[in-house]
Amino acid sequence: MTTENNLSENEEKKNPNEVSQDTSENAVSHDANQHEDDAAEHLEEHEEEISLADALKEMEKIINTPNAGENFKRFNQLKEKASHYIHDEVEDKKHEYVEAGNPAENFSYEHPSQTKYSALVNIFREKHEDFQKGQEEEQKKNLDHRQSIIERLKNLYTNSEPGINLFKSIREIKEDWSKAGQVAKSEFKILNNNYFHHLNQFYQMLDLNKEFLEQEYSHNLEKREHIIARAKELENEPVIQKALNELQYLHKLWKEEAEPVAEEFREKTWEEFKEISNKIHERKSELSASIEKEQAVNLERKNEIIAEIKKLSEPSETPNHNYWQNSIKRVEDLRSDFLKTGSVPRKLSNQNWNDFKTTLRGFNTTKNNYYKSLKGSQQANLEEKLKLIQTAQDNMNNEEWDIAVPLFKKLQEDWKKIGHVPKSMTNKIWDEFRDACNAFFNNYREKSNTSTDNWKENYKNKKALLDELKEVSNEEGSIEKIEQIKTSWNNIGKVPRDKISINSEFNKTLREKLKINKINELELKEEGLSENQLTDKARKIKNQISDLEAEIVKLENNLSFFNKPSRENPLLKDTYNTIDEKKAHLETLKQNLHSIISGE
């Protein structure tokens, strides 16, 4: 009497026929495992691409799990992706640096995510080492436990006491063996062979107890029939990978728990199970076809993205600043879409990725060349605006209204027509020009007889300003335009009662334009406000200051829950940055409030 599983060398020599059957079963089981490995490889190739930010976020999530060390494979996949993205982006920066005419050996750049990436890798390395130590200790305990089970099995057929229930005892031993934890791979083969050797010896002893042997045969046959029935159901399982995974588990049950059976059922049941297994494995081609079809769709989408970026790099008409700003946002969306789109066929993956990176670099090169060409014209624009400032400053105390008012209106119109200036000078020259204009119009308003205001003319002027405000977008210089329009609005007197709704329409439009330009109304630089308007604005600023101070206190209290909180801790970096941003915003509001109170 032998089992159908791993036999010792002596038993193999004694039972050549049964060893042959065992070898065939194990061979098919090995093929099943190979099929599962192939399917798993298909799935690994099919993993969805993720962005650098998402990869770092998932890495951080892993290291914060209780058993972080056991997720070694997933963490390594994310680590490789993150490293790949960081390397590519650094190479892009180097490419731009060299393209600008700089020597490559002088290039120096640290990616903004490098510090966080390194911190996550170091933290995980420590957690993985701790996990491995724990695994080694657990495997040693499991080894001792399994050896004790083998001793119980050995004693069952060598030192059994009279009246012992062998059927119950062998069931308990086999159940304990199936539930025992993992041991080191170097120990498993010898340990497993030893177990089945003594199990075989036990069954040989049972030749003397035919009644028990028949019970054992019957019990194991029921297990085989149950396994076969479940395997038949898997033939119609719609999720192919699920069917393959469960089939692998059924083969494990067959090897470990469904032996032995009576001779007349042994070959019959095995052949039936093997035939069903082969049919299920044949369905793996469906899985491959499905993955290939999806990868083909992904490749088509990624090529469409590359083509669209290339098209943006080659505009049919001469592009302006607004075109490039919109294109930059669109390319960023396309880049995100590319990374989120799933995998493509492996043989085309590298080429597809290289095409994408080359196209991105081409776009950036064309865009950078455009802004380089603007530098000369921006200098000329600066000189033109400086002349307007000088004229405004020379005439801001001029009280010959018939001449001065049209002059300042003309200066403002000319200012809007002149293009962009170097960014470092934008705010400075705008402040100088606005101050000169405000000084003139404040003087004009104070010394003009308000009783002679032409309300209809006021409405006409306000309507023109409202129309101008509606045309403002979120391009460079938009905030200056809004401030100029708002100041001009403040300097216009009353309108007829039946036209007063224009004020509400203007305020609504103003809020919309401030929102798209991401600026708070309280931070808007404007002149010409009445005392009531100044008081209301000061009240609003005070309320926002109070709210910000409360938010900062709350965030700083949250930090106190950590032991020795530091900016160097990658988990607290975002919190410190948020606090810094809110404090900067708070300081701006305080300066605005001071300006209102002091009348500056």
From TrEMBL:
It comes from the Bacteria. Pfam families: DUF349. Residues 531-592 form a coiled coil. InterPro entries: DUF349. Residues 1-51 are annotated as: Disordered. Keywords: Coiled coil. Residues 32-45 have a biased composition (Basic and acidic residues). This is DUF349 domain-containing protein. It comes from Chryseobacterium culicis.
